[in-house]
Amino acid sequence: MPAAATLLRDIFGFDAFRPGQEDIVNAVAGGRDVLAIMPTGGGKSLCFQLPALMRDGVTVVISPLIALMRDQVRALRAAGVEAGALTSGNTEDETAAVWRALDEGRLKLLYIAPERLAAGSAMGMLRRINVSMIAVDEAHCVSQWGHDFRPDYLRIGELRRALDVPLAAFTATADAETQAEIVEKLFDGRAPDTFLHGFDRPNIHLAFQAKDGPRKQITTFAAARKGQPGIVYCGTRARTESLAQALREAGHSAIAYHGGMEADARRAVEQRFNTEDGLIVVATVAFGMGVDKPDIRWVAHADLPKSIEAYYQEIGRAGRDGAPAETLTLFGPDDIRLRRAQIDEGLAPPERRAADHARLNALLGLAEALECRRVQLLRYFGEEAQPCGNCDLCDAPPATFDGTEAVQKALSAILRTDEWFGAGHLIDILTGKVTEKVRARGHDGLPTFGVGRDIARPMWQGIFRQMMGHDLIRPDPDRHGALRMTDPAVPILKGKAQITLRRDTLAVKDRRPAVKT
Ligand code: ADP
Ligand code: ZN
Fold first, then answer.
1. Where, by residue number, does the polypeptide cross the bilayer (predicted)?
2. ipTM here
3. Where does ligand 1 bind, in terms of residues with CB under 6 Å?
4. Is the pTM value of this prediction over 0.80?
């Protein structure tokens, strides 16, 4: 059976599971009957699509919305997966192609509209082919109490009995009556493995800091948690070594871990981490899969993670025992540049690259958030929450200012120099600094020269970083990382939209006391 994590990356192009997905995927792939309750947008489809690829035979997917089915089939095909749909919207050719793929045993996922189950031919056909499992999307449609009742859904139970295969049911509706009815109608009352997780991990304190001497920021954070087991995630292998060294010099017990190490050496680190008190592992993302330590008290990111999903997964390794745990994520313009470049230089097709940029934007939005981080994080996964009182922004709301004018000045400096320069030179222009480069290019003659004198240089650096975080400007890999304006910046430049920025991101320091255990 192909490994779930490999398929996740190679077929779907995701670097990490979303909350809850991995457990559900394992149960479904293992042939269990499953009822999974996840918020809309939480990533349900992956929970049956991925197991469908791991199992032999065809997965039959029943979904109430034809448009949705067609979208999913199109996306799966684009990813190289054999999928087809039998719906009333099909052309004859499409239907013939699906039958052929079924006959030839090629199809992995067959989407069927529930009303097709009423037609005897579909039932007969499904009995003849090698069906490995049934997946039911929007399973609450089987419930007569709900507002989405679909009489045809009642036939699914019949189908399951006829085929005698595992069934996985998915819904976003969590109330007890609906759940009970799903169990009764789809599973004949035999309790399936049920997954109902909120995504929140309330014991984990969330914090971000703009990079301002990362080595010092990490050692300061660790010093306040001395003797407590923690993980420091780094973007590169070299950095794991140098940061582990710095932590040892500061008197911690710290060790590096990365994918370039021999398997034996890696296992030895995992072993030490599980058994030794207060060890810090300084690692690349390669560290984590084999770690099942419930009392990790803190996780720090010395470099920005790849995506919001990766962030959630990595901080989620802390505090599995439910006791308070602390996290700190550092981010800076170089991280943003690196992550953008990794996406742009990757081999992924354009749509996937756009989606990767969007996922990175979600994480940057979280980094530059103005209000409760947890509210924003959970909203991304489809869950509404109240301000948590356990994140840096709830602890100390940031000072903000109307950044519209400053952003307009910065954008105009970018445009007047034809989008060919990086932040350093642009800030020289804005603050009216006559450097050799400024003089050589004649930039001291620009109308924007010196218009930002009222703002100090470090503050400008923060503004440029926040502009990158809000995706108003992007480094162009074909222009040595020169900053270019993006479409969302246009309304701000034209004075049609405003933007609020944080004043303090450069000056925040770790003021939280260490967790007492
Ligand atoms: P729903 O739970 O509403 O059916 P979907 O399955 O349509 O949600 O997923 C919502 C979005 O989340 C889709 O755009 C999907 O590509 C994305 N998604 C799902 N799983 C992941 C993941 N592990 N990492 C990143 N994005 C994901
Ligand atoms: Zn909060």
1. none
2. 0.97
3. 14, 17-18, 21, 38, 40-46, 309
4. no
